[in-house]
Amino acid sequence: RKEVIYIEDLPDEFEGFTILQFSDLHGKTFGRDQWVLTRLINKQSFDMIAITGDVVDRHDPDLTPFFDVLEGIESDAPQFFV
C-alpha cells in the first residue's frame, strides 16, 4: 500500500523522497527465486529501501529466500536493514 506522509519543516531536498519498505518475510517464498515479490518491488519508483522485521524464521534460519529478494531487486537505490 502507498502512504503519503507530510512532515512540517522537512528540508526541500527530501520533498517527494520515496521509501519502499517491506517487513517480516520470515523466510517465506513468493514464487520461484522470489519472482512474485521482486516483480512487485521492481515496478515501484523509490529513493531507498527499508527492510524491517524478521527476514528468517527461528525454526528455519535459511537466508536463501531473503538473498533471492536482494538479488532480484534491479534498483541501485540504497538498502537499509533493521
Tell me what you see in this structure.
The chain is α/β, with parallel strands linked by helices. It is 21% helix and 16% strand. It contains two helices and three strands, in the order βαβαβ. It has helices spanning 35-42, 64-72; strands spanning 19-23, 48-52, 79-81. The chain has a three-stranded parallel β-sheet with strand order 1-2-3, with no helix packed on it. The model has no long low-confidence stretch (mean pLDDT 95).
Q: Provide the spatial order of strands within the biggest beta sheet.
A: 1-2-3
- Poorly predicted runs of 5 or more residues: none
Q: Order of helices and strands, N to C?
A: EHEHE
pLDDT averaged over residues:
95
What is the structure about, briefly put?
The protein has 82 residues and is of the alpha/beta class.
Task: List the defining traits of the structure above.
about 80 residues; alpha/beta; three-stranded parallel β-sheet
